[in-house]
Amino acid sequence: MALQSDLHKERVERRVKEQLPRLDPVALDELGMTQAECEDLERKLRGYIVLPGMPDYPAAAAPHAAPRWPAFPQLIAFCETPSDVRICLALAREKALWAVPRSGRHSLANYSTCSGMIIDVSLMNGISVDPIELTARVGAGANFGLLNAVLDGYGLHVPGGTCADVGVAGFMQGGGYGLTSRRFGINSDCVLAVTMMLADGTIVVADAERERDLWWAVRGGTGNQFGILLDITFKLVELPSVWSFELRWTVEDAPAALDAIQRGYMRDADNADVGYLVVMATIDSEPCLLMLGLYSGDPADGMRALRPLMDVGKPTFRDDTGTYNTLNDAVLAVLPGPGLPTTMEAKRSGYIATPVGVEGWKTLVDYFATTPNPYNIMVLEPYGAAPTAYPRGDSAFIHREVDCDFFVDSFWDPTWPDCDEETALTWLAGFFGVVQPFLNGEMYQNYPVRDLPDYREQYWGDAFPELLRIKQHYDPAGFFHFEQSITPPPPPS
């Protein structure tokens, strides 16, 4: 232990000597801190700080998912312990800094950053598994790549994101949809307890018995609302292996296939083990429809469950068997990606809750065929089964009585002469003009959009008044805030 302590002190002093002298005096003045205060903060933390002028600032400040909205925080604190988080909160209160927690940097609207202080918890990524009780306690800094790899060793599972670098904490607080959600539920439905630090440094454990209101609110209320999440305790399920499948239809067969999928594999369907995404994409220069999924039962039963779709048009088919950790990544590998550091993305989503019909699907397929680049995608995330069975009022995630979440990703890049930002955004807006008649007005809060006219209603619906009451109880001063905070709605104009 003494050796570890000595090594930590050596690391801290090396950073103080080599990194902190490079601090920008103007940035320090704007931050309201002196060089000595920054050095003192570095020495207090088990983690470390990054400020403008330091070599690692550009990488530390950069978002992973939303380069459209760059931010330049005055201070980034990489916290390694709850004590680190408490020290940073105290500093933010003392200096009147806008402080925002960050984990996976995957906020699509870049709400996990700000112009003040980022409290980054990505180093708090410990995971402990109880294979007897089938539970896992997961640090708020863990991402799904790490969590899935750990659970894989036990043959255990919790529904999670399809991208390995998505942070577990932010994902869960927005609900959290994954490929196995139809069988095992929305990620937040699997939460037994959370540990959260409030703005004054108090640590609260919330579950079905203790601080039940907070437990209810954090499961769907989104991050940076009530406090800083420290860890999550999940209820796990046994899932030693899964069967993956891919069905692919031509654009001509796509409307009939989409109609068959909506009628037979969504809200009221009795096939919960069929977890999947439906994707319109351009592959080998041709638009096509893909059904990409994981079956959480016997492969022979999976084949029988998919048999009706084999008779719709002439789809190609391929499959594989393996662990969830392996195949969750492999399922989406077929989709092309821009792969350029300069590429920008805009996403918009909405819930389909009414039959679209073959003609309606044809309208959407025809619009997709006008894509200005080969990387745009249209995606359906099917609900029904476990998400629909979970009582709507038992958490702040309200999106239950729906067929699917519908979203479109639209990309642009300065190196693409035929697809600039205006072209990409115009195409995206046009798509939602076409799909609008089939949407119920709700929106998945993990796909935030900055210009929503009424995000309170679209994200939370009739759960919002209770969320506001809980917000005002746990964060009465509104310390945790951002552009789509839980705040009273503005008065009618």
From TrEMBL:
A Pfam short name: BBE
Keyword Flavoprotein attached: yes
Entry keywords, A to Z: FAD, Flavoprotein, Oxidoreductase
Domain (FAD-binding PCMH-type) ranges: 69-239
Entry-linked Gene3D superfamilies: 3.30.465.10, 3.40.462.20
One example GO MF annotation: FAD binding
Name of this chain's protein: FAD-binding oxidoreductase
Taxonomic classification: Bacteria, Bacillati, Actinomycetota, Thermoleophilia, Solirubrobacterales
